[in-house]
Specification:
The chain is α/β, with parallel strands linked by helices. Helices cover about 30% and strands about 20% of the residues. The protein is built from ten helices and 18 strands. It has helices at about 40-55, 85-95, 95-120, 135-155, 190-200, 255-260, 275-280, 320-335, 375-395, 420-439; strands spanning about 30-40, 60, 75-80, 130-135, 160, 180, 185, 205-210, 215-220, 225-230, 230-240, 260-270, 290, 295-300, 310-315, 345-355, 360-365, 365-370. The strands form four sheets. Strands 1, 2, 8, 9, 10, 11, 17 and 18 form an eight-stranded mixed sheet that branches. The longest helix has 25 residues, at about 95-120. The chain is globular and about 70 Å long.
């Protein structure tokens, strides 16, 4: 079926809500604040809420508008996925670290659900479970071992679904069975953000949008001086929470972080309204979905159950009809029944990775950082922002296992991921070889 280019909106589907995504703040930037947070996404808001409720004056500085980055451009899948397998983590970091990280991922997922309920955030959150489709018979065997370990040793609820039974999860023959993690859910990204913005506003946090930070310097007496294009502000505590939107060499303050994080584009489409019956006929379990490919694809029903969202790693900075065709072909390869479907939305955003492929909370030169959620920031960003603030305030006796020294810098890298096309090509070749050898 030929796509109708005139119906495609090149902006996030999530933005079409009646709730405010911006704070009505017209105050001038103050000269001082107990806490200054750079970055107005999930991480920054989570840290801001903890600091504000502890009685601190808190300023959030955002270069664009709050949530403009990954916080309202994600797929709304709450997986807290960990890129390295448990076995890979155990080999590199030891069994205890691997166990602790997987347990913390589960705790973070549960905490997100409790946060929405306790704080009254109507984010259309649903604990749906997550089906990860195996891209080969070998991958199915790998998932079966992982599921046994997670269930028996760590108590994380999950189970395997055979290829013969997978139509009960998704009516597709693309996979060789898969694994379901039962404690994964999904939400409406912008409704969650809007609820979060309401909370920090009620707590007294001031958000200054369209304000660019240039540098963070030592103050003459104590703390830091945050230099922006609208003036400088003195702070006792500074948090950098820019993640995949850290920017380039035009911002001096970001040099340390951008040498350690790689922004990776992710592109998403949303179909036309299919109706609940058709969506459920294709996705009977109405779960979140992914696969075991190196170049992974993630997809899900929208929270109202009437459309299907699909995302994958993308190469284009701004989405075009070429992006739509690429993602639609991915969708049809999984669900060929949708060959007649039009696309209503397409957009791109950035996620961030580090060399360790593990989210990290760290400090350097008196500045606190949380970054590199590896595409799973809907859970990790809020969790890490919260844990960072609690640790700075001394509110917890159990620091996050993600708290460590700063991840190593990438050699010959200063924020421009020139090497990603080669990485995509290599991963794509590995995916093709996997299916050819083990399918």
């Amino acid at each position: 079926m030929t796509l109708d280019p005139d119906r495609i909106a090149y902006r996030p589907y999530w933005w079409d809500i009646d709730e405010p995504l911006r704070q009505d703040n017209h105050d001038p930037l103050p000269k001082a604040s107990d806490v200054v947070i750079v970055g107005g996404g999930y991480t920054g808001m989570a840290a801001a809420l903890v600091f504000a409720r502890a009685g601190k004056s808190v300023i959030v500085i955002e270069k664009s508008t709050p949530g403009y980055g990954a916080s309202t451009r994600n797929g709304g899948i709450n997986s807290a996925s960990i890129r390295p397998s448990h076995g890979e983590l155990e080999q590199s970091w030891g069994r205890q670290f691997a166990d602790d990280l997987y347990r913390e991922a589960s705790a973070a997922r549960i905490d997100l659900a409790e946060f929405c309920e306790t704080e009254g955030i109507d984010a259309m959150f649903k604990l749906s479970g997550w089906f990860k489709g195996a891209m080969s018979a070998k991958h199915y065997d790998y998932l079966a071992k992982e599921a046994d370990l997670l269930q028996s040793r760590l108590g994380i609820p999950c189970h395997m679904v055979s290829q013969a039974d997978q139509h009960g999860e998704i009516v597709s023959d693309r996979f060789y069975g898969g694994m379901v993690e039962d404690d994964v859910g999904g939400f409406h990204a912008s409704k969650f953000f809007a609820g979060f913005l309401r909370l920090i506003t009620e707590a007294g946090v001031k958000v200054y949008e369209k304000t660019a930070v240039d540098d963070i310097k030592d103050h003459a007496t104590s703390g830091k001086l945050v230099v922006t294009d609208k003036g400088s502000i003195h702070a006792d505590i500074v948090v950098v929470a820019t993640n995949g939107y850290t920017g380039g060499s035009e911002h001096r303050f970001s040099r340390f972080l951008r040498q350690r994080t790689v922004p990776v584009r992710s592109s998403i489409i949303v179909t036309e309204n299919l109706g609940r019956e058709r969506v459920k006929a294709l996705m009977p379990a109405l779960r979140m979905y992914g696969n075991t490919a190196k170049l992974t694809t993630y997809f899900r029903p929208t929270p109202d159950g009437q459309r299907i969202l699909l995302g994958a790693r993308g190469a284009e900075h701004n989405p075009t009809l070429k992006t739509v065709h690429f993602l639609r072909n991915r969708l049809i390869s999984i669900l060929p029944q949708l060959a007649d479907v039009q696309i209503d939305y397409c957009w791109t955003g950035y996620v961030a990775f580090n060399r360790q492929l593990i989210p990290r909370i760290f400090s350097h030169n008196g500045v606190h950082y949380s970054a590199a959620y590896a595409g799973s920031g809907t859970v990790w960003a809020r969790w890490c922002g919260k844990k960072l603030a609690e640790q700075v305030l001394g509110q917890t006796n159990a620091p996050s296992v993600l708290t460590a020294a700063a991840p190593p810098a990438l050699p010959f890298y200063n924020g421009n991921p020139w090497f990603l096309p080669m990485v995509y090509s290599w991963y794509g070749l590995q995916d093709r070889l996997n299916e050819w050898r083990h399918g």
